[in-house]
Amino acid sequence: MDSTQPIVTISGTAIAMDGDDIDTDRIIPARHLKSLTFDALGKFVFEGDRENAKAAGQVHPFDAPEHSGASVLVAGENFGCGSSREHAPQALYRWGVRAIAAVTFGEIFRGNSATIGLPCVLLTPKAAAESRAAIAANPVAEVTVDLEAKRLRVDGRSWPVEINESLRRRFVSGSWDSLSTLAEGTQAAADLSRRLPYLKGWQAA
Fold first, then answer.
1. pLDDT tens digits, residue range 120-129?
2. pTM (2 d.p.)
3. CA distance 4 to 84
4. What digits encode the pLDDT tens for the residues 90-122?
5. Alpha helices in 44-162 (DSSP H)
6. CA distances, 88 to each of 27, 28, 38, 44, 139 (Å)
7. Which domains does the chain have, with CATH numbers?
């Protein structure tokens, strides 16, 4: 994750996930929350769902060979709801997902995603259904999330997406990582504290 890089368009193949209310417990099972780093979480994305699909003789979208290397995820309503674990967007990012389009998102999930440079854009229910159908019909089609034009493009078709304008500008300008922005201002804050008369005698951290 390079917080100095603008995020304007995200292109690649896509995974279409049917179903609503896909929560963070399903995205990354609780047993993996004890990991000391996020680095290895990608291989555990939807681990329980994938195991259940395999046991039923089915192939989960994240195990389908045609979706290997996909960078866009298109989902339904209330994606990322449930507990506020930051591991969920981290796991998706480590797997390779670089943008998510859905009808709605869990608010904390969307905020945690923005922090790591993973844009979450909104589709109408009709657009979400149509775009998922287009991806299912041609799994190797190029899919693009365009934050400049605010469009989702799939195999020659296009739908409008919505995203908070302030956040969109931060992605496009490359200033989306608020933690790095704060860290960059550490010296300026220390210099200012030394000049403030009511902080005289305090030691700046």
1. 999 999 999 9
2. 0.84
3. 26
4. 999 999 999 999 999 999 999 999 999 999 999
5. 47-55, 87-95, 107-115, 125-137
6. 6, 6, 10, 10, 24
7. 9-174 (3.20.19.10), 177-205 (no CATH)
